[in-house]
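Notes, Module 5: Reading structure tokens.

Key idea: the token line is not a picture. It is a compressed description, and you learn to read it the same way you learned to read a sequence, by spotting repeated patterns. We will look at two proteins. The first is printed below with its tokens.
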Amino acid sequence: MRTSSIENFERVVSSRRLNSYRRYFKTKTMDEAIGLYLWNGEVSSCFASHLAYFEIVLRNSVHRAMSMFCTRGRSTSAHWYDQIWKTLSPTTQRRIQEVRQRRSKVTLDADEMVASLSLGFWPAVLRNIDHAHANLILPAVFPFHPLSAPVPQWRDTKVRRRALAFVFELHAFRNRLAHHEPLWKFGAMRDASGTPDATNRLPSRSPAESIDRLRGLLALIEDAAGFIDRAMRDDLGQPPGANAWTSCSPSVASSGIVAASMCPIRRF
């Protein structure tokens, strides 16, 4: 991005928004705050691309596993959601109906329907899987998850809820991206066990804590992708032997914050 006027940038983005950066990062000038605002945009863009890869891989894996389960192994692409319709929540049913209404002029095959559903659909489907079928379906969705091998261990409800917490966390983070929220502003993270009012991480209170949480999310995306396909990270076009998500690392580091705050906005 390139701009020649700090005053104009402050006016169109709003002082209130930029002042939140000044307070949190304790910057001395508005120029530094704007640099950090642009740094947040750079980090957001990086996370968005990686989450998009994960979303596609997740939906394809769930679709394939559910199709195989509902057709008893006869098809990897079926309208499985129609076969389990009565077990789906009203919200999940509504999402399917909305897609069909939006594209009512064409007959959607199963792959087209799946491609039209948002990321929020898939955590709901995974949460809905009955414990009696969990050891058959979830190892097919996440073949490299610790609960999938050597003996599937997905049946226990509390264990399953904790194990799938990463999907819900990534979905919530993606929603923050979609609403252009400051990624460094982390709230408390609730315990995945479902215990009322339990938290396992407090809100971030410093740039160092924010960096720690962002780096943790990078590792979570990496782990999540690896649960489905171990080679997926290497298939994203990274140099041989490199970590698939290292393209974000320079920005998601304390040095990235310092560089952003010291770089005048007209250089971006």
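Here is the second protein, with the sequence above and the tokens below, as before.
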Amino acid sequence: MKNIQYEHSNIGYQLDSQSEQVTTETAEDYTNEQSISDNYEYLNNIEPASSVQENTSIHTAQTNRSELPTKSVFSSDDIARQLSQSSFGYSVPQEANINDDIEVVVKINPSISIDQLKEHLPEGQQITQNIQISRIVEVRLEARDFDVINLTPQRQIIMGDQDTTWKWSLKPLSSGPGKEVKITVTAIITVDGEKAERYLDTYVGKVNVNITTKQRITKWLSANWEWAWGSLLIPIVGFAWAKYSKKKKKKK
């Protein structure tokens, strides 16, 4: 009877040992499976080098793109919409005498032809052509061999149905051929709400400045009056006075 109980006891022990071994093996297998699962998940979360490089390139490109200057909303079409065709002409005298005032005239009229505009210009070197203008136009005159006086505003609003006229009074400062008169035309446009200048063209007229004999003598005397008074006028006055005195004595 005791032997049977012992044998049963051994069997129970063996069963308990086997059960504990199975339980231990099962725990170890679970731990290994969990470790493999964690490693697999970790490996899946690691990006390839090429992917990292690609993402870095995209980020750099996005950063560089954000640093690029924004494209201006103002284009050449915006300028073109502010410009229109018009007849343009100017007149510059071909000849002038020194110290005499002359007049230079510029006219713009978008409602007539250049041939019609030519009839509105004074005589002289008349140049007419079609140009692009804006609503406001500035015309400047430069002539270093002349004393220049502006007779009209340099910047004017263009009237659509009549002449817009610029005038200058010029007085030659020296004689000689081909004295240049430069006329610069500029369109005034609007860019981003601000007034801006757009250069159109520059025209050059040439004036032959002459000097008459009387003007030459007058000019020389004005420049050398001290020498002339001492060297010429005083002897002439003295000679005239001596001659007058002789006549007076003879009468006595």
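Summary for the second protein:
- The longest strand covers residues 194-210.
- The helical segments are 2-45, 49-67, 76-81, 114-118, 213-223, 225-251.
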